[in-house]
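Saturday, quiet lab. Running sequence design on the structure tokens for the scaffold JK sent over.
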């Protein structure tokens, strides 16, 4: 068992916090990667997705909990992506 796993075993409440923050990190990194790969600026992405540049900055800076789902879907669609839902096993 790794130190990481031991920590979560000893502090199970920290696992939910970690999962949430890690998801925000992945979203931010994905946005940055796609914007760079497609050579799209914050202002250009905002214009194409019909949102304000502030929304794009929030997504890029891991402040995504303040962005609603329809706005997020619009930004993803502009970058050429869509959300797919996948059923996962029941949480304990």
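Result came back. Writing it out in full:
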């Amino acid at each position: 068992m790794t130190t990481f796993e031991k920590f979560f075993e000893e502090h199970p409440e920290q696992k939910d916090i970690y999962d949430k923050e890690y998801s925000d990190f992945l979203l931010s990194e994905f946005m940055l990667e796609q914007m760079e790969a497609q050579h799209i600026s914050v202002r250009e992405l905002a214009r194409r997705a019909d949102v304000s540049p502030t929304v794009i900055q929030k997504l890029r800076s891991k402040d995504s909990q303040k962005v609603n789902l329809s706005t997020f879907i619009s930004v993803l669609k502009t970058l050429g992506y869509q959300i797919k839902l996948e059923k996962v096993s029941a949480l304990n």
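Notes for JK: The mean pLDDT is 84. The chain has five helices and no strands. Ask whether to fix the surface positions before the next round.
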